Amino acid sequence: MGNGIVLFGPPGTGKTSLAQSIARELPGWHYIELSTANFLEQGYERLFSSIKTIFRKLTELDHCVVFFDELELLVLERDPEKAQWSIITNVMLPELQKLHDRPTLLPIFATNHVSQLDPAGRRPGRFDFILPVGFPAADERRRLLEGKLPADYMFPGIENIAQDVTIRELLEWAKRYARGKKGKRSAEQVWKSGFAELKAKPKVLKQFARDIDNLAYPPEARARV
User: What angle do CA 14, 89, 129 make, to 5 degrees?
Assistant: First the structure.
């Protein structure tokens, strides 16, 4: 049985919310969230000591989802020209292995840049699932907007205009859009004129597609999301 998940995708796609939902679905399990700030709390010069201390405490937990939020800097692909970061990766990988080997812990690692992770950190045995978290589908976009906008601001096909955007971007624009209808301009006109600026950049979309094709695991996770 596999253990450990990497969630990857552009910022704002809901990786943190998904990890929290997984924890809620496990009866009696707890949830802990860690960021780079936790590891650097004692300063960079004590980073290695902090890594050892934090992971020792984690392995003492029972029935807990451990969420690592954007910690790719601590597991960067090793590079002879970046010796210091390579040493950090060398320290982190065995500690991740220990978490993986404990059946009552579930490590979940969220990253915007899965291709930057060291290959040894991506292989089964440290994280056994590498899953893309993409943009909401049309029906999901419609439900999100219906929950945030007055009925007279909704119009047929509004969800189809809002493609290739994250949940965060969609909801942020919905707030602005609800305040932006002025004069005789229709809700549709306001939406179309302002929404384009929030669409994901083509470079981000292309990199996400490459990561799905090359790095998502198991293979069935490579279906477009």
Answer: 40
- Cα three-residue angle 183-144-207, rounded to 5 degrees: 105
Residue 193's φ and ψ, nearest 5 degrees, are: -70, -30
Do the Cβ atoms of 188 and 175 come closer than 8 Å?
no
Domain boundaries, the chain: 5-134+203-222, 138-198
Edge to edge, the sheet with strand 64-69 lists: 30-35, 64-69, 105-111, 5-8, 129-132
Q: What CATH number was assigned to the domain covering residues 5-134+203-222?
A: 3.40.50.300
Task: Determine if the peptide bond prior to 218 is cis (ω within 30°).
Answer: yes
**Chain centroid to CA 12:** 7
Q: For residue 74, what are its two tokens?
A: 């601590």
Helices (H), ranges, the chain? 15-24, 36-39, 47-58, 83-100, 119-122, 138-148, 158-161, 167-179, 187-195, 202-215
- pTM for this predicted structure: 0.84
Helices 167-179 and 138-148 sit at what angle, rounded to 10 degrees?
40
3-54 pLDDT tens trace: 899 999 988 888 999 999 999 999 999 999 999 889 989 888 898 899 999 9
